[in-house]
Amino acid sequence: MVRAIGPLLLLAHVLVFVVSIAAAAAPVRRPRCDAGDRAALLAVKAAFNNASYFQSWTPDIACCHWYGVDCGGDDYDYDPTDGDRVLSLAIIRDDNVTGGIPGDAIARLTRLQELMFFKVPGVTGPIPAALATLTALRELTISRTALSGSIPSFIGDKFTALQSLDLSFNSLTGAIPASLAKPPKLISIDLSRNQLTGSIPRLLLSKAGQQAFLTLSHNNLSGRIPAAFGAVNFVQIDLSRNQLTGDASMLFGSGKKELGSVYLSRNALSFDMSELRLPERLSFLDVSHNAIRGGIPAQVANLSNLQLLNVSYNRMCGEVPTGGNMARFDAYCFQHNKCLCGAPLAACH
Predict the structure, then answer these.
(1) Burial (Cβ within 10 Å: 0-12, 13-18, ≥19) of residue 92
(2) Does the global pTM surpass 0.85?
(3) Are residue 233 and residue 190 in the same domain, yes or no?
(4) What proportions of the chain, in percent to the nearest 5, are helix, strand and coil?
(5) Pairing mode, if any, of strands 69-70 and 88-92?
(6) Contact, 154 vs 178, CB < 8 A?
């Protein structure tokens, strides 16, 4: 029994030696970090006075592992010289990050695809012109900050890969630039809760394809809803709380198969609602506080997905439809119209 141990030990030593040789020959796995991107990120950190948000941004940690930074793919790479770059920078939910957006520093992240400032109320000033060089950008979010100034036209002119734009909950002023209609892949725009004025660009999201999302609520926009919106395949559109006038019927129709949410409340819209054909997938419809006339289409009772219906404070007449899903909606949804009647309102005469 003792003699049998010798060969086994010899075999074990051989295996250890072979594994050691293989490990020595294998390339070393190192954390990825492009030197130029690292320097750019450190400039961002310095511009924000080394706020506590950036406490993980230290020399002993590769920049692709810093909080809010993403280089995509695996966390490690066999070859640190193969050009791996920072693809995403997100600065979110921090009251200690203060100052203007350091455009010159961020512009040095030339492969950047996603840039996000979210819930950082200390970020002030305009959108810097230096960001125009980030032509690979796919997603731009600057939301719930103290951002001011106008929406620069370069967002539409230069960001040809842009898919999503969110500049909501800021203090932006001026008009929506017509150039935002140019990016061929842009499908989602949220400019809500600002102080924007002027009209809605005629061809906004005209290239969006099968799904489009538009939120422009809580601004001071005026004029008519573009007729070209009749050809846009909206999933959600929110134009509420503006000063829009005229017709909105082009947003509806049996061909709008993806349309789920329409919010048009608190404008000055005027059209005949009885002529509308509502999409079967419609889940949320709020057209309250306008000057809409006609009656409620009987079809609404058969929309099984409908969770919100509000036509209050308009000039509508006729009997409220019955049956189907109508029991979900109380008198509040229909009140203050010219002559709507029937349950849950007073009986028709």
Answers:
(1) middle
(2) yes
(3) no
(4) 25, 25, 55
(5) antiparallel
(6) no
Is position 57 within any domain?
A: yes
In three-state secondary structure terms, 173 is strand
Give Cα 125 distance to the centre of its chain. 21
Domain end, chosen from 195, 223, 241, is at 195
Task: Count the domains in the chain.
Answer: 2
Burial class (CB in 10 A: 0-12, 13-18, 19+), 254: exposed
Using DSSP's 3-state secondary structure scheme, residue 96 falls into: coil
**What is the number of alpha carbons within 13 Å of residue 224 lying toward its C-beta?**
13
Q: What is the mean pLDDT of residues 102-125?
A: 98
Residues 6+ apart with CB under 8 A from 91: 48, 53, 68, 97, 116, 117, 118, 120, 123
Instruction: Determine, yes or no, domain membership for 12.
Output: no
DSSP classification of residue 68: T
Structure confidence by residue, pLDDT tens digits, 229-252: 999 999 999 999 999 999 999 999
